[in-house]
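Hi everyone,

Forwarding the result from last night's run.
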Amino acid sequence: GGKIGISANVGIGTNSPSSGAKLHVIGSDSNNILKVQGGGGTAGIQITRNGTDFNNISTTGANLIFGTGGSTRMLLNNTGLGIGTSSPYYKTDIRFANTDTSFSGGSNGNWGSNGLRIENTSDTNGTMSAIHLRNEFADIHIAGIRTGTNTSSLGIFFEGNARMKLDDNSRISLSNNDAGTSNTVFGKNAG
């Protein structure tokens, strides 16, 4: 096949292509705006900077693949989203091999391990960063609760009511009513 070299910005569906883009495509309806079709088993877009970085978005069958540095980093298919795996088993499946046996560092919340980070950047005491578990209409929340500068508690909530809290002084508080006013405290200096 031949090659076409164009030094100006190209507009498809527009006579005024954006000066910030070499290719500017505008669709006139809800149909596909850009279609990439490979002749073999894979079709994709490779994104490079100075021809040295190899990042891509591609597809193989029912898999949508996101890659950086020549490696697959994330895959989305009919089963779910896989990070670190090309065959997700759950809706979100994160896998990694990490031999760290302790946390180190901590500067700006970076503790030197792998996993999942959910961060609330508010400095208001009582604010939470939570995981919400729901079975039909039954709700459970597991939350990190800010209690002060560099201090927090871990809370478990059923239907929005705190049932257990573990604070940074190794105390466990169990609540037996919805208001959270009747508590049993165990642990260091339990009183």
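The two ends are 82 Å apart (CA to CA).

Cheers,
N.
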